[in-house]
Amino acid sequence: MTLVQNFPFAAIMMCLAGGVTCAALKPRIARILALTLNILIAGMMAAVLSQTVSTGESYRYMMGHFPAPWGNEIRIGPLEALMALMFPLLTAVILAGGMQNILEDVEPGKTRLYAAVICLMTASLLALTFTNDLFTAYVFVEINTLTSCALVMVRYRSGMALSAAIRYLIMSLLGSGLFLIGLVILYDITGHLLMEPIGSAVRTLADTGEYAFPLTITLGLFSVGLALKSALWPFSTWLPDAHASATTASSGILSGLVLKGYIILLIKMIYRMMGLELVAAEGVIKLLFAMGIGAMIAGSLYALREKDIKRMLAYSSIAQVGYIFAGIGLGTEAGMVSACIQILVHAVTKPLLFCAAGNMASQAGGGHRFDQLRGMGRRNPLLGIAFAAGALSMIGIPLFAGFATKYYLCQAAIRAAGVKGILTLAAVVVSTVLNALYYIPALQILFDREPEAAKAVRAPGRSAALTAAAVVVFLALQFGLGFFFSRIAGIITTGLKTLI
Fold it and tell me: Do the strands 59-62 and 73-76 form a parallel or antiparallel pair, or are they unpaired?
């Protein structure tokens, strides 16, 4: 085993150790450690991605060198490595972009705890991406849930943040409970916790027809539980308040990264435990498809009526999660490719929008309503350009990252044909129009020349250089995905094949 192949496990342990260490350090040092650790791990994951792409194969890392089915293990292929690179890289950029708001919104003595939570969050996302064991997945699902709640309630002066965190906790625990019940039933049927042995047992049972109904129930419990935690409509009522009340960095991480960890786990379970063909034949996939299509429309309609920029972005996230589940719901490889591309696109784009909106709101006195942000895009051109780039990407303009999602989803819909294909194409068209109807007016307000734009605004804070650097990196990633999406799609296609 090469040195690089040890990086995934080492990265998870480094994040867990970093969380404990940050809690004991001075606030400033803890913030630096959390940022540095995520950058270092991003470099490690880039090396893992390079190796797995060059070989086109996956490999296993056994904990303590105990083989299956007794030992615990992680499994790494091109898809897992690509997603694992996304989490620490974007976490570092989001932290840099939202540092000014962290300093304003978090009680000064507790930013070290915020840094600790960030490290634990990264550990949980990496573990969900790499794990090949269902019980380990459940443990880190819970860690992800608790750290997410901490990110929401960190604004110590906001009663709304505490209320939103409690609602988020209740809904997330409901999803976790459904996942745990499914895990218990599946373990009782198959006697395994590792995904490959479970997959072999499930295929044997499918061939013989035994336990057909319990297996369907299990798939439903896993799918609905993780869909609930991913804020799939109509289980998304908690999301707008949570994202709107959180500090800028928390909003970007919750929307861009946290929701994706659960979806990546679901995709792995579909491929390794059930098999795409078996899942496609079940009614559960139709339910996920229907909710995905509904989310694409409902999220956009809710966003259309919002006057608060962060709530608008939160509702937009509901619609964008719908794109992911619509792709999964098609039940085809092309649909899964489009879903994975959307995971990357939304992870890059939505934190960019939250970063720009949060920093403009901070300079405008802290208000998030559009009438309070009038002209702020002109006052700070870099943030205005950043928001414009993110908005055009969400609409699906060519050369921006968001175009890749709609391109591949439409391709998948055409190949699927039938009712699903027609509904997907119609939903993409309607959602795109609705996206334009709320993002373009938002841009008009931000770049308005009205007298209100002449009001006094705060000067950029002491973290302005970090914010500018983060915006530049976000823009580079945005256009990188927009120009090279076919290469990314190739890695994803190879990665999906190695999941089996």
Answer: antiparallel
Answer whether 182's CB lies under 8 Å from 249's CB. Answer: no
φ/ψ (deg, to 5) at 267: -65, -40
Contact present, 157 and 110 (Cβ < 8 Å): no
Domain count, the chain: 1
Other beta carbons less than 10 A from residue 110's beta carbon: 14
Taking a C-beta distance cutoff of 8 angstroms, is the pair 35, 82 a contact?
no
Read off φ and ψ for residue 369, nearest 5 degrees.
Answer: -75, 150
What SS3 state is found at 131?
A: strand
Token pair of 468, please?
A: 């500018």
Number of H helices, E strands in the chain: 22, 2
Tokens 């496609």 map to which residue? 280
* Identity at 289, one-letter amino acid code: F
265-304 residue pLDDT tens = 999 988 888 877 777 777 788 888 989 999 999 988 988 8
SS3 200: helix
pTM over 0.85: yes
H/E stretch holding 455 reads none
Give the residue numbers spanning the domain of 307.
4-498
Q: Which helix (H) or strand (E) holds 413?
A: helix 401-416
